[in-house]
Amino acid sequence: MKKQILLLAALAAVSSGVTAQKKDFGYKFYGQVRTDLFYNSRSNSETVDGLFYMYPNDVAPDANGEDLNAKPDGNFYTLYTRLGLDVTGPMLGKAKTSAKVEVDFRGSGTTYSLFRIRHVYFNLDWGTSALLVGQTWHPLYGDVAPEILNLNMGAPYQPFSRAPQIRYRFTQKHWVLTAAAIWQSQYLSVGPSSNQTGNTSTQKHQQFIKNSCVPEFYVGADYKSQGLLVGAGVHVSSIAPRKQSEYNDAVYKVSERITGVSGEAHVKYTYNKLMVAAKTVLSSNLTQTSTIGGYGITSVDTRTGEQEYTPLRVSHTWLSVMYGKKWRGGIFAGYLKNLGAKDEVSGILGTGTKIDQLGTATAELTYNLPNWKFGAEYSWTGAAYGTNTAKGRVTDTHLVKNNRIVFTALFQF
């Protein structure tokens, strides 16, 4: 609590100019107070007790055949209240220097009163090129995201993650080229929860990227001109699921790795009050970006229990259309398809791996004033659950649906 009070005092001091006396430094203090009231018609896969919404849970019959997940829920939160600080600094050689620190109150688990780092980085800008070092949006989230009230910002159709990274950008006329090396912090890959061979129970843990000793890599290109942004990128991730195996009553050192290559394309067009944006992603084991996927076990060494893996492939596509200024309305549509693995698998690790298809349709209306936003949003989501085939695809499906309503009030300063 003392640390939080000190941080608040420091930010307040900066905003009032008390600490803004250093030569060649500039400070801009900003933030928001946000409240969210939501209702769901059934139980869902989610984080932050429902604020970060993903998709409806599958049917779970009790002893009488009643669905345990067929129950509504709802809550009211102020957890996405936010504080931030933009800093401009003195020249470093020929580079303009800047930095950002931004936090919110989401905390972790059920401890919501703690500060959580959103963005923290410094940037060196030479005009046509720039180097960013620190934590910010994952490059797969990028500059094209849907405009919706739900705090998942389109996940699991839109990759969602903020991650530590070293990012280089080169700008020439209408073109922007991006290359980044990315690590994991708050948004983590899924992997095995124990060393037992064939155990397909999973957990999210930083050790999978840490043990890999290899960051994620992204390269992409964007073209920008008169309200139009078009681009594409390629992402590679390589994690180490296990360093040791308990097999045949013995422990063995193993060297395991699962590598996935993903691609994405995006477009955004703005003209006066109109905004149209879309993105499509073909992912391979992108569970660290708040989406569905994972990988399967293709073989097991009969002496040591060392396993080989292949990624599950998932297709994600979304479209967002918004129109208006003071009164602003719009729609969002998302579709996801599990394409399975290229080889047969004996076990699957991941999230949402029993979903064949997932679809969402959303409509919203907001009332916007200087520094204020009030909005309501309705979304329908349907998930087709079934059983996995030998290659990780899903068959014999049944549809599970959820209706979600969100009311939001936002004061920005």
Automatic annotation (TrEMBL):
Its domain of life reads Bacteria
Protein's UniProt keywords contain Signal: yes
Q: Which UniProt keywords apply?
A: Signal
Signal peptide interval: 1-20
Does Signal count among this protein's keywords? Answer: yes
Q: What is this protein called?
A: Outer membrane protein
Per the UniProt entry, what species is this protein from, by scientific name?
A: Bacteroides caecicola
> What lineage is this protein's organism placed in?
Bacteria, Pseudomonadati, Bacteroidota, Bacteroidia, Bacteroidales
